[in-house]
Amino acid sequence: MKLFSITVVFAVLAMSLVKADLKGDLEKLNKVCAEQSKATSEELNAFFGKGMREEDVTDAVKCHVKCIMEQNGHYKDGSVDQEHVLKTLNAIPSLQDHMKDITAALEDCKNEKGTDECDTAFKITACFNNTEAGKLALAAY
Questions:
Q1: Helix (H) or strand (E) holding 87
Q2: For 115-132, how does the pLDDT look when each residue is reduced to its tens digit (9 = 90+)?
Q3: Which residue positions does the secretion signal occupy (predicted)?
């Protein structure tokens, strides 16, 4: 259950909104991404359990972030799909009055680059999460 809760939090930070059966879809998504990224339950629990500190992230967890973003259409060809992310977030009623700030935060973070695609997806997510708008998006879930 703890891993599922962590996955829900991560999905929000990755700006991923699953519209249908949220719990079931996130469990499936987590399983697919864990298999692709080779991230272990221990790695995911350690990273998310310590507040998602950058010093606690592993390469496998970074690839898990990338996978979740890709599966939700938020990361394509090495960059964030800003239009899709904003459309997803704008569909959340409590965020509609904050889209200007969310857009600005995403604009500030979309060009983050890492050493590879997994690192880039992680850096974009971490950047967004470190903004007030990103925190607001997280709280909306």
A1: helix 82-90
A2: 999 999 999 999 998 999
A3: 1-20
Are 18 and 11 within 8 A, CB to CB?
yes
Q: Which residues pair with 80 in a beta bridge?
A: 75
Domain that holds residue 64: 1-140
The pLDDT value given to residue 12: 53
Amino acid (1-letter code) at residue 66: K
Residues 93, 122, 101, CA angle at the centre, nearest 5°? 35
Q: 21-74: per-residue pLDDT in tens?
A: 556 677 788 889 999 999 999 998 888 777 677 888 999 999 999 999 999 899
Cβ distance 101 to 59 under 8 Å? no
Contacts for 111 with CB less than 8 Å, ≥ 6 apart: none
User: Residue 10: which CATH number?
Assistant: 1.10.238.20
Number of domains composing the chain: 1
